[in-house]
Structure formats: C-alpha cells, structure tokens
Specification:
The complex is a heterodimer.
Chain A lengths: L6 E3 L9 E6 L2 E6 L1 H12 L1 H8 L6 E4 L17 E5 L13 H20 L2 E3 L7 E4 L2 E4 L5 E3 L9 H18 L4 H6 L6 H7 L10 H15 L6 H7 L4 H16 L4 H4 L3 H4 L6 H15 L4 E7 L5 H8 L1 E8 L2 H14 L4 E5 L27 E4 L3 H7 L4 H9 L4 E7 L4 H7 L11 H9 L2 E10 L3 E8 L2
Parallel strand pairs in A: 10-11, 10-13, 11-12, 13-14
Antiparallel strand pairs in A: 1-2, 2-3, 3-5, 4-5, 6-9, 7-8, 14-16, 15-16
Helix pairs in contact in A: 3-4, 3-9, 6-7, 12-13
Chain B lengths: L1 H15 L13 H9 L2 H19 L14 H5 L4
The chains are: A alpha/beta, B mainly alpha.
Chain lengths: ~475, ~80
C-alpha cells in the first residue's frame, strides 16, 4: 500500500477480532490477542510451519517486542498482547486478477497446508482466497492467525468457504469456460453452492466431485439452513475427528488437481509470434526498451499490455519487481507457466483490463484496493496499448495520458499512426472520432505532463517509441 | 410401528425440505458439515450412524438429553421448517 511515513490500520483486516494488521512505514505489523498468541506459539513450534516458511510458501514472520515497534505506533495501537512482523508482499493482488493456473495453485497450497497442519493437530479456521497472495509466480499464505490448534470434535469450519472461494470458481472456468474473475469482482464471497449448482448442467453433475460437493451440498445447505438443531454439536458428540477432515482435504485435492482450463492446454501457436510487424522492428523495440532499462536499477515497474511477457523479462533485469498486466487471460496463463518453469521470480503476472479495472470492494469499498493504491511504479511500459485504449476502448487520448501522468513515473510508450495496419483494422467498422490520434496530437497532449527524453521511429510513418520523463 | 413410520417420514422430509439458508460469515453451515461427514470415509460413516441412531432414539423417547440441551423432540425441531 501507499502508506509511507505513517501508521494505519489495514482496512481489509477486521473480520477476525483476534488480530489487526498495520502497515507502518512500509512494514507489515500484526497485533494479536492473547488467545491468538496461544495458537501462534503452537504454530511456531510446528515442523510443517518451519518447512513452508523456509520455502516462502507461508509468509516469513518474526515476533516483535513492544519496544521494537515503530515510533509512530500509538498507545491505543499498542494494546495488543503481542506483535508479529511479516515480510512485505511486493505487490498485493487479488483472485479476480489471477489466471486459472494461479487460482488452482493457490487452492492446492491451501489444501497442502491444511493436510500438513492437521498432521500436527493444527487447522486453518477459514479458507478465504484473500489469505493467499503471489510473490512473483509463487503463491504465499499470509494470514497466520488463521492457524489454530485443532479442537477435537470440531468440523472444518472453512470447508464451505474453500468451495466458494476456490473450488466452484475453478469448476466454473474448467467446465463452462466462464471466467471466475467477474464473479469475484461482484461478490467478495465467491460462488455459493446454490449458484454453482444452478450454473452446472446435468452432464456436469457426473464430473468428478460435482454431485457431492456441488449438488448435494447445495441441497443440504438449503434444507438445513434454518435447522434449530446444530449438526456441529451433534457431530462433536459423535466423535467427529481429524480423520474425517483429512479425508475431505484429500478428496478435494484430487478434484482440484484434475481441473483444467481447456484453452491453456492448447498449443502455443498463436502466441509464439503475436506482433503484427517484422522482426527488425521487434529487435529495434527490444533495444530501445533495454537501453532505457539499463540506465539504472529501478524499484517497481509495470508492463501494461505485457502479452506473454517478452518485455517484462527485459524490465525484470534491472527492476526489483515487475507487475505484468494484460487483458488476455491466456497470455497471462502462458506467462505464468513460463515463469514457473524458467523464472525469474520477481515478475507478477496479472489479468487486467484498464477499461474495466478491479474496483475497490468489500466493506465501505476499502477492503480490497484499486490497482493505483497498491504501490507506485517507477517505470511504466505501454507497448502496443494506446491504440487499443483510444480506439477499441473509446478512452480519449488526453485521459490516457492524464492517468499515466498521475503516477509521476517514467513512461516508455508506443504510439501508432492511422497508417498502421493494426490501427486500420481497429478503425474498419468504426466512425473515426479520434482526430487527436496523430503523432502531433499525441506529442502536444504528452507535453503537458512529460518531457520527451528519447524518441525513435521504429516503423517509418507508422510506429514511434517514446521515453517520457514526468515534468516537475 | 407408527412412530417408526413417523421418523422415516420426518427424515424423508428433512432430506427434501429445501429452504433459503441463513448463513453468517464462517458459520460452518450444517449442510456443509453433513457433506464433510458423508465424504469422510469410514470414520464419517460411523459419525453419521451415531448421529442418526441418537436421533432415532430421541424420537422414540429412549435418549436422555444432557441437562443443558433443549429437550424438545428432534423430529419436531427438524420438521419445523414450514
């Protein structure tokens, strides 16, 4: 978050009253109650926690003495029994920005953690997808107070939440090829059993796990919803135990593992060469970007319209962290797969549509943040993007430049003219209502916010690259 | 026999009575707990047997409720869903 220089309560951290996250001068500090401390101490001693933390799959954390708290911590904020400091996630992202493979990996990590924890009589008390983050291409579990010592007789309280936040969204995309992302943007609690059941067809009910986990669960949740007798206490009185939860976790693992998103299985054919211009031009583009990138080491960089991430990889060579955004989920899935295979570890691939961005959602629209509020980039790369925003998205060019200028960052931007094949294709069935979409128009609009540090014509009369420096 | 028949009908109604769920954040939800039991292998089957055996005994007046529990008959409660 952008929170430098002050301490504040993280607005998305309030549901569990036993802890509170504060972001202070870029540090992530969590106050925990005495009840939560008991669970933390058990977790800290456990073997599985050490293993997962050493692999970075659980957020690295240390205990912080009250004397070590930053000076900006108020007395009121110091009332917690104990404090933990978590390693900072370089850039926060949400499930509605993840490709299918990312949600699937996050789901499997959650189940692995459940299984390993249960073997040491610890359980995850909830299963919200927002407890998962990505550090580059690696999923990380961040909400340590979710681990609690297992109380014999208790069912897996987070079971239905796991279904709503992980299983059903994955099933929807796998079986129906409907993206789970828009659903999460509209409902922070994911897909209910009833909704999932309504969406899956009769044929789908015969797929692995659907009959019991979707159909039967939706019917039972509906029929027992108002039951006065708690089956939870009845189960506790009837020797409900760890083995049942373990058996459910293993079953869910099997179901999740076999879920695939069909387009992701297809060949790379369309993606190996995605640009509509010749190789010389592409080379020139690469050397322009490389030259700017090599000027100095930068912190956070964004690659907007990253495609399968060729330029994100160039950015990554001299950036601490790269956020690679593209509207096309398949491109992001390809990038995610290739990052998992070959690295590097500091590129975060996200599915993102600038004309339909992630809204701030949740309680008072403050629980989950807009992209702009999650960290300021030092360099923004916008290649083959502006014409899509202006012509396809009908966003005025002045608006696009105003938005880019709002970050106060350096920009590398590609501008096409109306003579370019791609632009002509976009204009084919449209009224040309874009008189400002010319090189002169672009330069005059950009001039209000930026100085041109470097300009290069990479395709005569058609494509231009700019390295822009913010004014002031 | 009449009572057995009533219990059977009650259980049948329970299985068929679909109602809007009243769920709070992280209420484990009875339906989801029952699914966990159903999918819980042998251990789950044993728990299910114990739960339903107790319900049957309670319906027949053969089960003594622990002091703090509500003493209404199970079938009356479960069937109270109209």
């Amino acid at each position: 978050m952008m929170n430098e220089g002050k301490s504040h309560r993280e607005s998305g951290s309030f549901r569990d009253r036993n802890n509170q996250v504060y972001a202070v001068d870029g540090r992530i500090i969590r106050g925990i109650s005495s009840a939560a401390r008991v669970h933390w101490e058990a977790l800290e001693k456990s073997k599985f926690y050490k293993n997962y933390a050493s692999r970075g799959q659980v957020i690295p954390t240390q205990v912080l003495a009250k004397e070590e708290l930053p000076a900006s911590f108020s007395d009121e904020e110091k009332h917690w029994d104990s404090f933990l400091e978590h390693e900072r996630i370089p850039f926060v992202s949400y499930a509605y920005e993840w490709c299918f493979g990312m949600l699937k990996d996050a789901a499997l990590l959650h189940l692995d953690l459940m299984e390993s924890a249960l073997r040491e009589k610890i359980i995850l008390k909830d299963a919200t997808v927002f407890n998962m983050q990505f550090q580059g291409h690696k999923s990380v579990f961040i909400d340590l107070p979710s681990f609690e010592v297992y109380e014999p007789g208790m069912p897996w309280v987070g079971f239905r939440q796991f279904c709503q936040h992980f299983l059903y969204p994955l099933m929807l995309q796998s079986y129906k090829d409907i993206s789970f992302k828009n659903w999460f943007k509209g409902n922070i609690e994911g897909i209910t059993p009833q909704e999932c059941n309504q969406m899956l067809s009769f044929r789908d009910k015969f797929r692995k796990g659907v009959f019991s986990l979707v159909y039967l669960q939706s019917k039972l949740v509906a029929s027992l919803g108002d039951s006065k007798r708690s089956i939870v206490s009845e189960a506790a009185d009837s020797d409900f135990g760890l083995e049942i939860i373990l058996s459910n976790v293993r079953k869910l693992k099997k179901v999740v593992r076999q879920l695939e998103w069909a387009p992701a299985r297809s060949e790379w054919s369309d993606y190996t060469k995605t640009h509509s211009y010749n190789d010389d031009c592409f080379e020139q583009k690469c050397s322009f970007v490389t030259e700017v990138v090599n000027e100095r080491q930068r912190g956070l960089a964004w690659d907007i319209g990253c495609n399968t991430g060729h330029f994100s990889r160039i950015l990554a060579k001299k950036s601490d962290y790269v956020v690679a955004l593209d509207i096309d989920e398949l491109s992001i899935q390809r990038l995610y797969d290739s990052l998992k295979k070959d690295g590097p570890d500091h590129i975060l691939p996200l599915v993102f549509d600038l004309t339909n961005p992630s809204p701030p959602i949740g309680w008072r629209c403050k629980e989950r943040h807009a992209l702009e509020d999650r960290g300021k980039p030092e360099l923004i790369l916008c290649l083959a993007l502006v014409h899509h925003l202006v012509i396809t998205g009908n966003v005025p060019l002045a608006e696009v430049m105003d938005w880019l200028a709002s970050f106060g960052s350096e920009i590398i931007i590609e501008m096409l003219t109306k003579d370019d094949d791609m632009v002509q294709k976009l204009l084919l069935n449209r009224v040309d209502q874009y008189p400002e979409f010319t090189i002169e128009g672009f330069e005059s609009i950009a001039d209000a916010h930026f100085t041109v540090k470097k300009k290069e014509e990479i395709m005569p009369g058609k494509r231009f690259l700019y390295h822009l420096q913010p004014r002031g | 026999m009449k009572r057995y028949a009533f219990v059977s009908v009650a259980l049948f109604l329970l299985a068929l009575s679909f109602q809007p769920a009243a769920q709070a954040y992280l209420d484990p939800s009875s339906g989801s707990v029952l699914i966990q039991i159903i999918l819980g292998g042998v251990a789950g089957f044993l728990v299910l047997l114990k739960i339903y055996w107790r319900r049957i005994r309670r319906a027949l007046g053969l089960y003594k409720e622990p002091a703090e529990e509500n003493t209404e008959s199970a079938t009356a409660e479960e069937n109270n869903d109209e």
